[in-house]
Fold:
Amino acid sequence: MMFLFRLWIPKVLAYEADDDFQYLLMSRISGKMSCDEYYLEHPRELCRLLAQAFKMLWSVDLTGCPRERTIENELEDAKYRVENNLVDLDDAEPDTFGENGFENPEALLVWLQTHKPQYEPVLSHGDFCLPNIFLKDNQVSGFIDLGAAGVGDKWRDIALCYRSLKHNCDGTFGGKIYPDVNPNLLLEELGVDPNNEKIRYYILLDELF
Structure:
């Protein structure tokens, strides 16, 4: 494990590639994933620790960060995926496309392009979902899956974590329902006012990736 910018992250141990596959060996992060049954059964503790993880990311100085994921950059990447039929419709939320949603990815892209929110840059994890945040001894013990990390809008991470909380507790992932988990607890622990428009925007944007 490596300590970088006050964040515990895996250390790359080896990398190999052949004609068909690439292989990456990384060090192990101690602790449990934040979607572990214990934390889902203790939602207040879970959301407090997730808020701690957010604040650790937000405390990092952005000077010299080599990657910035502005809204414009994200939309350009989304446009490429739409134009090249790379959007997985089967992986989308039930109401994103179809009768109650957008006609197709092209229509969603147009909506995203015309409803861009205010940009609030922080160090963004890039895939802030419960399996990627590790907890141990009542604190954050590490972060994994940081391939998309960089400067980005704080609400992109919040939106993905909000969705992850919802689906880890409504039976979508794992099949077990945890009725006491309210994703709004996360916003309460973060000390931020709910911004449902930005949460919806970034969840919809993620549908194109």
User: Anything to note?
Assistant: The CA atoms of residues 16 and 23 lie 5 Å apart. The longest strand covers residues 12-17. The mean pLDDT is 94.
